Amino acid sequence: MGMNAVYEGAGDCPEVIPLFPLGGALLLPRGQMPLNVFEPRYLAMIDDALKAERVIGMIQPEPDDGRQPEIPPLLKVGCLGRITQLAETGDGRYIITLTGISRFRLLEELSVTTAYRQARVDYEPFATDFVARAGEERVDRKGLLKALRDFARVNDLKIDWKGVNEAPNEALVNALSMMCPFGPREKQALLEAATLKDRAEVLVAITEIELARGGGDPDTTLQ
């Protein structure tokens, strides 16, 4: 499809993709993720992606149970991202930005000669990912903003409230999901939420759990 590919549906995306396993990392459709790439196998993966369709699959390893296998098993849902920015550093690293396209379900990891892992994936279960702002009218924006304000106050986070207030619901929910400092299991729950409304509800629920753990008296007003 080439470097100017436009992915308008599941049928446009490659069935076999390179995988970048990274615990705690969350990429969502139309979200942007900066990555500092330094391991030789992933530098090679980026080189190969740039020669092809410029896409890689972000996916989490299964949460560590202490075994630390040489090739950690992967969770079953990840997100395809397109390399939209790339800079080379003087010490051999790549600084890239991935823009999310669609979630995928991992069908089969392949036996390959590359140093990085590759898999056959299916995008069909996530067809609505290709529709920008799908379902955002059902998001409880007020509840989401209240949870964010409480979380930011208790954790002394600096928030660009002007940007938050101006953001459409999809951009707001996905950016907050990607940015909030939650653990791998919480990040996966946000990734696998069926709809944007579901993701917003999961985000609020996780935030409230974190607030309960951290104590504090949640603010009840929006400014």
Order of helices and strands: EEHEEEEHHHHH
Query: Could you give me the name of the CATH homologous superfamily of the largest domain?
Result: LON domain-like
Instruction: Assign the CATH class of the largest domain.
Output: Mainly Beta
Roughly how much helix do the residues carry, as a percent range? 25-40%
Beta-strand segment tally: 6
Q: Please give the order of strands in the largest beta sheet.
A: 1-3-4-5-6
Mean pLDDT: 90
Distance between the termini: 47 Å
Q: Residue ranges: pLDDT <50 for 5 or more in a row?
A: 215-223
What is the domain total for the residues? Answer: 2
User: What is the CATH topology descriptor of the largest domain?
Assistant: Archaeosine Trna-guanine Transglycosylase, Chain: A, domain 4
Count of individual helical segments: 6
What structural class do the secondary elements suggest? Answer: alpha+beta
| Share in β-strands | 15-25%
Radius of gyration: 18 Å
Major sheet attributes: 5 strands, mixed, barrel
Please name the CATH architecture of the largest domain: Roll
Domain Lon N-terminal: 17-211
InterPro entries: Lon_prtase_N (IPR003111), Lon_prtase_N_sf (IPR046336), PUA-like_sf (IPR015947)
Protein name: Peptidase S16
